[in-house]
Amino acid sequence: KINQMSTEDNFLKNKKYGGLENTAILKCFWFDNTETDVNREKVFQMNDWEKYLENPIILGIGYLIFSLCLIGVLYIVKSKSITALLFVPMFLLSFTIISNNTPILEDLASLFYKIPLFSQVFRFPFTKFILPISLFLSIFYAYSLLYLLPKCKKIITATIVFLIFLLMPIVF
Q1: Which pLDDT band holds residue 65 (cuts at 50, 70, 90)?
Q2: In this structure, are residues 70 and 140 in contact, taking their beta carbons and an 8 Å threshold?
Q3: What is the pLDDT averaged over residues 69-74?
Q4: 167 sits in which H/E element
Q5: How far apart (Å, rounded) are the C-alpha atoms in residues 168 and 145?
Q6: Is the pLDDT of residue 5 over 60?
Q7: Count of CB atoms within 10 A of residue 4's CB?
Q8: Is the confidence at residue 124, as pLDDT, over 80?
């Protein structure tokens, strides 16, 4: 009984952050977790990170990184890179499962959760899929750089684009 109650509670926690606006920047239910501080007051564990994401520039960088990753996916599909194409369906499956509150994707994710074994095994889908999604996004990010760099006519422009690509994930 406790397992069933926990499963429903966890599903709802994941669904709260399953929208595209959160999934794109890899924000999850951990932002709702609290702990007791030294003054015995409840504080959010991710409070500093939440404040950091309130900065519109930082948030914009996060969404820009995700957009560049999508450009990388399109470039992979267009270039028909067999090796890189293998990552696209695995990314789509993983992203669909954690985007369980995004139109269209939520319907696909609900089909996945109707299978009893999967609904139990993946009670915390974010923790199961964040590592492969991060890997796939980093690959797609690199491919977007491979797509954009040849479009730069001057070496200085290419250098600036390259440096921006290096710095954005660090700042975010």
Answers
A1: very high
A2: yes
A3: 96
A4: helix 155-171
A5: 12
A6: no
A7: 10
A8: no
